[in-house]
Design goal:
Layout lengths: L15 H48 L2 H7 L4 H16 L3 E5 L23 H4 L4 E7 L2 E11 L5 E10 H41 L4 H17 L3 E5 L5 E4 L1 H7 L17 H8 L4 E7 L4 E10 L3 E8 L1 H39 L3 H25 L3 H16 L3 E4 L16 H21 L9 E9 L2 E8 L27 H11 L3 E6 L3 E8 L23
Parallel strand pairs: 10-11
Antiparallel strand pairs: 1-4, 2-3, 3-4, 5-6, 5-9, 7-8, 8-9, 11-12, 12-14, 13-14
């Protein structure tokens, strides 16, 4: 079997830091080289100007010298001018001083053998009375020279003076500053290279050695993940301001608009949720309630002073399913209790028949059947909504098992189809189920104080375009001082309560456009009112603090 050849390995792309390093080195080198060239040209130009001024000064000084003027009209100019010109040349540092007649024949020269020879250069302008400079090649090589006329007392040109500096001497004098300039440029290049390397080493650490394409792909994946993940994700900086908030978090917390840099405290979230988001300690699987949702919160610090990662999960449906499961379990318990009671009653009937007391057996069975059927008939006649009727029958059986009478008031009446279309069976179970459960618990706890059988009264009817669900108990009632806190999450008087039942009731009521009222009769009276028509859609905006639903456990 032939082994397929190994696929060619892709050459790793240069990291973004490496690319920037190369670009920055080229830029630094170009800037330093350009600066060095400009500095050299500027220095050369200034030095040439200085040399020209020096040669001009020497030529004019010699041309105006009385010694040169008198010697130029004397019998032997060279004998006087040659030693004088050489002394001035040595004192001034120029390369040569040549004095000549009006025909260009030299009277002086650094090389005495050149005296008497014609001058190699232009003299027409000087003969015309002008002082001019030129660069020409003479006996000493290329040089920069200045030619000035010599006048007699009648202001006639009787001679010429040429003073100059060879280009070789100029190059020698420029060598030292040029070397210094090259040294400075080299040092600047080295320092710039080191600084660039250090900056790019830090950039390489921050980019983890990835290239520009990799970073671009990572950003695309990052954005796609943020917008597609179903969990809410919020990133907070060290000052608890929002750095990032994905779509799921906006939906869960009902946030809108530009949130970058907004402090968590300014989002208008419930106090408990705001406190958890701003807490210094991490939060693990903590349940919080917003105006319309139950969310599971987790926070984790990124690093010391760097910020916090917040994740949110929607537990609204899970909490509703949990409530339904609790209700179903209650139904099962009630059915089990009824089966047990039915078995006991059946044994009693059979025993009466075996004893030959047939009439007593018939009377006993008839009485028990009438008692069981009375509540069922009343509920079925008054409540046409099947879910609500089933819930009431189940809760009645469950309450009876615990020694509590559940009574449906005579004015209760709900026909089938009148419930709001947005009120789901799950919400209905959450509302009435939690109210009845709390009322039964409160009635049992106060049974020793209140005379008679503990009782829970339920009213379910339509009232002026609203669905009214009212549950009253014979418990101790709710302290008026605690009326504002009864819906806070975690508020409970139960020994093992979680404080979520009434919180979910209030949240569900708000979600369906209604509310919960607290009253008092023999015990606590809680009334839920829901509009039969769907509420008008709310304008999206930042979440505002709503009444936080909490369970009032008795």
């Amino acid at each position: 079997m032939a082994v397929p050849p190994n696929p060619p390995r892709r050459r790793p792309l240069r990291s973004l830091a490496g690319q920037l390093f190369v670009v920055q080195i080229v830029i630094v080198a170009a800037v330093v080289a350009g600066g060095a060239v400009l500095a050299y040209l500027f220095t050369e130009h200034r030095y040439e100007d200085s040399v020209r001024r020096q040669a001009t000064t020497v030529a004019l000084s010699l041309a105006d010298s009385p010694t040169v003027r008198e010697a130029a009209t004397g019998p032997d100019p060279s004998a006087v001018i040659q030693p004088y010109a050489e002394q001035v040349r040595q004192d001034t540092g120029v390369s040569f001083i040549t004095v000549m007649d009006t025909h260009g024949i030299r009277w002086s020269h650094p090389d005495p053998a050149r005296i008497g020879e014609p001058y190699l250069g232009q003299i027409k302008q000087a003969l015309a009375g002008q002082v001019f400079a030129e660069t020409a090649t003479g006996t000493l090589g290329p040089s920069m020279r200045v030619v000035a006329p010599v006048y007699d007392r009648d202001h006639h040109v009787v001679g010429l003076v040429s003073a100059g500096i060879t280009l070789h001497s100029i190059s020698d004098q420029l060598r030292a500053p040029l070397l210094a300039l090259v040294g400075v440029a080299g040092a600047a290049l080295v320092v710039g290279g080191i600084g660039t390397y250090l900056a790019n080493a830090r950039l390489r650490r921050h980019t983890h050695g990835m290239g520009a394409d990799q970073l671009s792909h990572l950003y695309d994946y990052h954005q796609a993940t943020l917008h597609s993940v179903r969990e809410g994700l919020i990133l907070l900086d060290g000052g608890r301001r929002i750095v990032l908030c994905n779509d799921a978090a906006r939906e869960l917390l009902a946030l809108a608009g530009d949130l970058d840099g907004v402090p968590v405290a300014d989002l208008g979230l419930p106090g408990s949720l705001t406190g958890a988001l701003t807490a210094a300690t991490p939060v693990r699987d903590e349940v919080h309630l917003t105006a319309e949702r139950v969310v599971l919160l987790n926070t984790s610090a990124v690093g010391p002073g760097l910020g916090t990662v917040v994740t949110l999960r929607d537990h609204t449906e899970l909490q509703g399913l949990t409530g339904e499961l609790d209700t179903v379990r209650g139904f099962a318990d009630a059915l089990s209790a009824q089966a047990h009671e039915a078995a006991n009653r059946l044994h009693a009937v059979v025993s009466l028949v075996e004893l030959g007391r047939h009439q007593e057996a018939v009377d006993f069975a008839t009485a028990e059947l009438a008692l069981a059927q009375r509540l069922t008939d009343k509920v079925v006649d008054a409540v046409g909504e099947p879910v609500l009727a089933a819930l009431l029958l189940g809760k009645a059986a469950q309450a009876a098992e615990r020694g509590v009478d559940l009574v449906l008031t005579d004015d209760s009446r709900i026909d089938d189809g009148v419930l709001p279309p947005g009120l789901t069976p799950r919400d209905l179970v959450t509302l009435l189920g939690n109210l009845v459960d709390n009322a039964v618990d409160a009635a049992i706890e106060n049974a020793a104080v209140h005379p008679g059988t503990p009782e829970v009264t339920v009213t379910a009817r339509t009232d002026h375009g609203e669905l009214l669900l009212r549950v009253a108990d014979t418990g101790a009632g709710i302290d008026p001082a605690a009326a504002t806190d009864v819906f806070h999450r975690g508020w409970t008087t139960k020994q093992h309560g979680r404080g979520l039942g009434l919180a979910l009731v209030a949240q569900t009521a708000r979600r369906n456009g209604g509310g919960v009222e607290i009253g008092r009769d023999r015990g606590a009276v809680l009334t839920v009112r829901l509009p039969l028509r769907p509420p008008a859609p709310a304008v999206p905006g930042p979440a505002v603090p709503a009444a936080r639903a909490e369970e009032a456990a008795r």
